[in-house]
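Hi V.,

You were right to ask for the full record rather than a summary. Here it is.
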Amino acid sequence: MKISNYQIFLSERSKRRKPSPIREIQPLLSIPGMISLGGGTPNPSLFPFDSMAITLKDGTKLEIPKQSMEIGLQYSPSYGIPDFVNYLKNFLIEQHDLKDVDIPPWDLCVTTGSQDAQSKAFDLLLNEGDYILVENPTYSGALAGLQSNKINPVGVDIDSEGLIPEKLEEILSRWDFRTKPLRALYTIPTGQNPSGTTLPLERKRRIYEICSKYDLIIMEDDPYYHLRLPTNSDPEVTKIPSFLSMDIEGRVLRFDSFSKVISAGLRIGWVAGPKELVERIQLDQQSSALHPSGMSQILILELLKSWGTEGWEKQILKVRETYAQRRDFLMNCAEKYLKGLAEWYEPSAGMFLWFKLNGVDDTRDLIVNKAMKEKVLFIPGSAFSADSKPSPYIRASYSTASFQQMEEAIKRLASLLQKEAVLTFSSP
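Predicted structure:
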């Protein structure tokens, strides 16, 4: 059923948010002939910057037009620079085939990376003491944000294809909504962090049906959407529709980012979803950062315009090919050195391999203390645990280490596990 009243989903903090009177007049400044003595906008003639030219790695020169520089250096609307917001809306429509779907009125707000949008969405939907469904394991950054605000994550088991719908239904069928407020599911559907799993379409449809049945908001955190990788079962990388693209009821908030495919340091992400919810997120932005970096928005906008569709697709292909090669190399190293010592499956997206270490109930001491002495770093699985329980898993990244370093790291891990096995076997 289409959501008609979003008030029931809002936290008490969000309900109290009011528009900034000064921010409200910002869109009016673009009206031809408008004279404003109302805002606190600094005089742009005093900014020391005049022009900018960027050299891309293929040798192309990217000139930032003077007018764009002026826009990027000045305060802008809290939704983001209008031209950039419009570009992203059209980008989303094309990427997710939204022209063909009758989704309720939606909007988009640019944020300082997708984690900023995610944090603001938690604030939008959750009060202290509330509950939220998450995959178990899930992104440690999300857990940190929830736990610091005394929000209780409820873990839903995953397998090699991501969140298990039957487990979600099982939890919700027994849930006491009257005494334990629960209004949302947080999910990473593509290249799930840390497991590298990707939800197939059938599961997505079932999860959407379940969330509709129990009237939940779906928080679709999808930073690895463009990092889908070929696998043995899907060598052509079949496109899987997003939750947003199937949202006929207005219950999906989608979080995207350019961090993994253009630059992490530019800190540009965005949230898209039901107009009323996105409006509340930009009210939060009004009272915090005002808006994301104008120059980061302009730089990415000019880059995307210069690339066009062909340049964007070329960049995505390059990113996918590079990560696929790195993943395959790390898996070959694991096959060579970790057979019998660990278990793993082929990640279908992202930049992580999720190892289960045989004979190890809790990897924290092994990684934090013993592996450190061997000068090799992994992340223990407990860092991603929704229930804070010990974990036999570790996360390994194949994104930046050289092939030589990856092989040496796996050799050191194998040596450490062999020593542990001997100690365990010899202990009384």
